[in-house]
Write a structure and sequence with these properties.
The chain is of the alpha+beta class. The protein has one domain (2-154). The chain is built from 4 helices and 6 strands. The protein has a two-stranded antiparallel ribbon. The protein is elongated, with a radius of gyration of 19 Å.
Length: 155
């Protein structure tokens, strides 16, 4: 879904960006990068994937008596913080990535990998986590990029 939308946007954006000075391209890249970070962070906080579908919920946990309890709260409370979700921009690129502190956990959940439940414990059981897309482009993100470029052209 995201490739066709980006392919539609890329020629138009590349033509416009080629006409800008490097300093202006960098300024526009920072503006677009911050907008993408904010949109992705909000989706992570809301436990929604970029395509708009909800993330698979966590499995229920047994309490001390053995009764299953549904976990409350969001799955990735600190992953979406600005200090953990960094934007690096230049005149040629925009990169949105997690800091090394949360990158491993984010990769396990994003790709649905197998990982130990408690990495600090040597013999912790390994579980295959369901794939929960954390980063990506939604149709609203594509529109936000187009809007940012148009605002930059107008201003």
């Amino acid at each position: 879904m995201e490739a066709p939308a980006l392919e539609r946007l890329e020629p138009w954006l590349a033509g416009y960006m080629a006409r800008l000075e490097p300093r202006e391209r960098g300024r526009l890249s920072r503006k677009i990068g911050k907008a993408l970070r904010d949109a992705n962070a909000q989706r992570i906080r809301d436990n929604v994937q970029p395509d708009g579908s909800p993330m698979e919920p966590r499995k229920p946990k047994a309490d001390k008596r053995g009764r299953l309890r549904q976990r409350k709260g969001k799955m990735f409370p600190k992953t979406a913080l600005a200090r953990n979700l960094k934007v690096q921009t230049s005149a040629e690129r925009i990169e949105l990535a997690f800091t090394p502190l949360v990158a491993g956990t984010a990769a396990v959940h994003h790709y649905g990998l197998t990982a130990p439940v408690d990495p600090a414990t040597p013999n912790s059981i390994k579980v295959r986590y369901p794939a929960r897309r954390l980063l990506g482009f939604s149709p609203a993100d594509i529109e936000a990029i187009e809007r940012a470029v148009m605002d930059h052209v107008a201003g």
